[in-house]
Amino acid sequence: MSNQALPRPRFNAPEPERGTKAHLKIEARTTPLLQGKVSEIPDVFFGWAMRLCGLAVVALLGLIVYQLVVGSQLSWHAFGWKFFGQSDWNPVSDQYGALPFMYGTIVSSLLSLVIAVPLSIGVAVFITEMCPTGLRGILSFTTELLAAIPSVVYGLWAIFILVPILRQYVQPFLAKTLGWTGLFSGPPYGIGMLAAGVILAIMIIPIISSITREVLTVVPQHQREAVLALGATRWEMIRMGVLRNARAGIVGAIILGLGRALGETMAVTMVIGNRPEIAKSLFAPGYTMASVLANEFTEATGDLYLSALIEIGLALFFVTIVVNALARLMVWSVTRGQPARSVV
Amino acid sequence: MVDHAMTGVAVLTVGLVLVPLFAIFAYLVYRGIGSINIAFLTQTPKPVGEPGGGMANAIVGSAVILAIASLLGVPLGIGAGIFLSEYGRNRYGDVVRFVSDVLNGVPSIVIGIVAYGLVVLPQKHFSALAGGVALAIMMIPTIARTTEQMLLLVPQAIREAAYGLGVSRWRTTLSITLRTATSGVITGVMLAFARVAGETAPLLFTAFGNQYWNWKTDQPTAALSLQIFTYAISPFDEWHRQAWAGALVLIVLIVAAVAAVRIAVKHGTLAGA
Asked: What are the two backbone dihedrals, phi and then psi, of residue A89, each rounded to the nearest 5 degrees?
């Protein structure tokens, strides 16, 4: 194959005899540029060094699990499964139960999904299906800019802008119109579960909308054309031709957003009120698993106290891993070339 | 009719998403610029009640922690990326791929606990090193996956051409494949860097924070994000003002660091690399 690069003889000259000067000339051109045997040792060494790096990633995960499991032994032996069913959190009497924190994490995350999901799907649909091409790049860039803001800056903004707005306008309005449900009652502090849910929603919108957008763009164009050809309007086309085909991927995107919301620490800690109580009203202050770690880890004096906190960390770790693995599988099922289901 | 209504709804959602974005940036610039002065950039924090003071030690502290994180995380992350693309097209590679995706989703506060057990407990005190380790753990999976994707974009023919010239595999990987993908790999590294630069949660019980200058990597170290958190939840107006200034400085520094590396890749010292 390398012959093509070599100058061809201009006429059918007989092959030069082996060993003659002419033959040596040709041989010099066709042998590899690097003469001599290349040592294999650096190659083998490099290969194993890179494998070691890959192994290090797996080792890191093992290390995390090991640290968390060993650190939480004391608390596990003291409370067992009761740890997750008790709502007592009292460092003075060394009684620890994670229930209020689990409740706070779940409620604030779900609340954020309720707010973020319609908005992010709306944005994704607008960008992929309705938006003029010129605007598309700018819009997706700006929504992704939201993801680049550090969590602590979101918290800062929430304390000084979002919370006063909630206290003065949103909460009185909700109490008046929906107060009868019991979800929106009690004094409007501003700070509390609702504020945490709103700031979390703002933080997870970029993730959900960018993955939804990715999923929507892989829905084949002829699906859209087929639905339009049947006389559907644009909205009917989006609903039946696009959203229905991308269902699994969108659910995956939502779960990925949920995973982020569950583990989010700083912004939530700054606005949720940090009180380990289970209250029905969303106006009431709460506490999340991540927040209690942020607030109390450095102050934990007793061994059992620290161990209980690490056990909360372990629980948080497992929940986010399960949620993330589930989400990845669902997103993959759509974007990894699975044929779209037929519509009609 | 329904069609138009739904278009309206979609436009409305875009508006609702863009409002907080602009509100955050507008407020950050508005409150931040008014609070930044020379003292803020050159002095250490003053005790409550005294006006003035700044976050100079926190800015330097953040830089030190991030430097440690990059020193540990970037080579390991790129190495893992090379493994995934050049040696990991098999079951072992799939395991590493899955694990790094899982690591990516681990909450940052949990990483903080791990770094606490790994570095703080044996050392017996909080340190910049512990903060750096925590952030490095967060950088590795992102860098590994983006490096892998960038290396896979390099055409197989280029590798074969190098082998054909008798170049050994490690030389090919480092000076042909990695070199061709340099700008993409650096973009991935900067993404990971920007992601951890503003992290606060894993630093709470690793770097811990410090009100004074500290040049030792085994002592508690101030960080910009930690200082913003402490000041934001304090009841003092003067500290609130400084928190806004700190937030603006943090974002400007992150953007500047990313832009500087981008420019260096394009024109300066790393050009052609």
From this structure: -135, 95
How is residue A95 annotated by DSSP? E
Stated pTM of the model: 0.87
* Subunit contact A153:B247, Cβ cutoff 8 A: yes
Contact residues on chain A for B14, CB-CB shorter than 8 A: 122-123, 126-127, 139
User: B208 φ, ψ to 5°?
Assistant: 75, -35
Residue B154 pLDDT class (50, 70, 90 cuts):
very high
Cβ–Cβ under 8 Å, residues A263 and A109: no
Cross-chain residue pair A324–B14, CB shorter than 8 Å: no
User: What are the extents of the domains in chain A?
Assistant: 77-335
Structural domain spans, chain B: 59-205+215-266
Chain B residues closer than 8 Å to A45 by CB: 170
CATH fold group of domain A77-335: MetI-like fold (1.10.3720)
Q: Does B136 touch chain A (CB under 8 A)?
A: no
Domain spanning B59-205+215-266, CATH class: mainly alpha
Question: What phi, psi does A131 have (nearest 5°)?
Answer: -70, 140
Question: Which ipTM value was assigned to this complex?
Answer: 0.90
Average pLDDT, rounded, for chain B: 90
Residues contacting residue A50 through CB under 8 Å, at least 6 positions apart: B79, B80, B82, B83, B86, B87, B173
Q: What is the rounded distance in angstroms from the CA atom of residue A69 to the CA atom of residue B107? A: 16
**Backbone φ/ψ region at A173: left (φ over 0), alpha (ψ -120 to 50), beta:** alpha
What integer pLDDT is reported at residue B254 of this predicted model? 87
For residue A18 the two structure tokens come to: 């082996």
Residue A340 has pLDDT above 50, yes or no: no
pLDDT tens, position by position, A32-58: 555 556 678 888 999 999 999 999 999
